[in-house]
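#struct-help
A.M.: can someone run this one for me? Single chain, 364 residues.
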Amino acid sequence: MTILVTGGAGFIGSNFVLDWLADSGESVVNLDKLTYAGNLQNLASLTGDTRHVFVQGDIGDGVLLESLLAQHKPRAVVNFAAESHVDRSILGPGEFIQTNIVGTFNLLEAVRAYWGGLDADAKSAFRFLHVSTDEVYGSLSKTDPAFSETNRYEPNSPYSASKAASDHLVRAYHHTYGLPVLTTNCSNNYGPFHFPEKLIPLIIVNAQAGKPLPVYGDGQQIRDWLYVKDHCSAIRRVLEAGGLGETYNVGGWNEKPNLEIVHTVCALLDELRPRADGRPYKEQITYVTDRPGHDRRYAIDASRIERELGWTPAETFDTGIRKTVQWYLDNPDWVANVQSGGYRDWVSKQYGDSGDNTAEVASA
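D.P.: on it. Structure tokens below:
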């Protein structure tokens, strides 16, 4: 048996692939475009593992998708492929529209054609799981209840609007064509392999480099934080037992303002890797102009997935953030390669340049 994972060299996708192969004997075909945030070095530990087949390509490439589905005959598709950084979507929304909306449409079309040609048993067992975000629900006040699966969509950035559109397409393909879909909407992830443009890895990396620790506005924007490996376990559970056409919110029950997150990371660094001058890292905090349309609060009510599927996060924020900070301290070469862009050369150094961006790289 095989599953197809899209975006499996990104932050959440690579963690999912690693955990899947650690927990399962089932093979993974990993399709990733390898844009700036896709990093095959995340999957270096799988070198020589024949259960992992990497394919560099775009979910918008219908010919490639048709070929992969026909060749590998996956029993499920898990779609992580997305542009996901809000700031980048504000500066250049076009790529988000192409990947998150048009790309998802092309993926759905290819999967629908493949699924329609399966025999009755395989067709019944097949699943398409779409990984989305809590940002599609918009922003909450301090007193609003947390987002549930019945909240209406009110996206406020080009990123969240593009993800909302992709969610609607997935829903429509279930209701119109009967495609057996599942959707998860997660809160802010953190953990190993997080690209250091995002808050937590940015603070860890900048602190050690003696650089300012930028905090938007007053730093009181509230987010729910979910350790990435908990998110991966939730996806596995939804894939295993989720109701067809249903949506499951996945959160960590960890609502915290951004400034508290920064102070927590600084305190852990003071303990684990003190500054040479003995001064606290929090002295490097710098307040910067808030970004346009910055949502004030997100919060996930994850009670449905607990009630119906028995899933709860294994990590508290205290345990998860300590593991995360320690991982970055233990992996300076990974950080350096990301900062220098050297990770982009990793594929050619490891495997040679095939000259074909659709070529399969086995055991990547």
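A.M.: thanks! The CA atoms of residues 59 and 107 lie 6 Å apart.
D.P.: also worth noting: The first strand starts at residue 2 and ends at 6.
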